[in-house]
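Aim 2 progress update. The chain analyzed this quarter is reproduced below.
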Amino acid sequence: MKSLKIILDKAAQRLVSIAQNPQREVRLLAAHVLRTAYEDIYFGEDRLLKDEEESHFNALLDRRLKHEPLSKIIEFREFWSLPFRVTADTLDPRPDSETLIEAVLAHYPNKEQCLRILDLGTGTGCLLLSLIHEYPNSWGIGIDSSEAATYIAQENAFRLHLEERAKFIVGEWGNALSGCFDIIVSNPPYISHTELLPTEVAEYDPDLALYAGKDGLDSYHALAKQIPNLITLESKIFLEIGEGQINSVKSIFSPYILLQTKQDLADKNRCLIFCMETMPVVRA
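Predicted structure tokens:
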């Protein structure tokens, strides 16, 4: 048997070329293998690993060395300081999407109010569940066209003890819904089919959650047609956008009033916030 420290140090050296923080990644892999907390690994590197534990760790390390995202290997990703299960059927939640949560909190500072929240293209449910976690009197619905992703979102709701205030439905955007919501959030697919993506994304995130036609705008056109049936005059819409898409999305949503453009941590335009003064007439 070898000490955990020796195994982790060698593994971190192998990950240097593909990981920003290889020491953290190998400890997370070890925590997953040993079914323990990250902190236990950090302060317990003197323990000895059994042969089968080392073999399991090395098998996961080999997957990571092929550029499979760590989150897909350990089926876990933190978002807005909450733990979310992720699988091959879900988009990997990214810090950029936390910009939408920040934007909603800025526009709705009273966390005690009761808000009706709709998440279109919910994936893991990270946006909806993070929001109703922040607003304890609110409830919401998440829609996704993937039945497998919807199952994971509902599982995440149970894990976070939010299942009584969050429901998830399989559907094409808002087609399956009636009624109005105070807040609509969406991180839709916005990648064009010609765009080259990193291996971690192209090979391990589901195509359904990535690509949106030849220009990456198909999802926004679909949303613009359906949202009028789901909002009131006081509602606000929070849309994530890709790099260089701001003018195109503004044009698609021209019947609405653009309240704000919010940048992510890299100062890239990431979230557009819309409302309206009168019910819009959406172009076909």
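The chain has eleven helices and eleven strands. Residues 279-284 have pLDDT under 50 and may be disordered. These observations will guide the mutagenesis experiments scheduled for the next reporting period.
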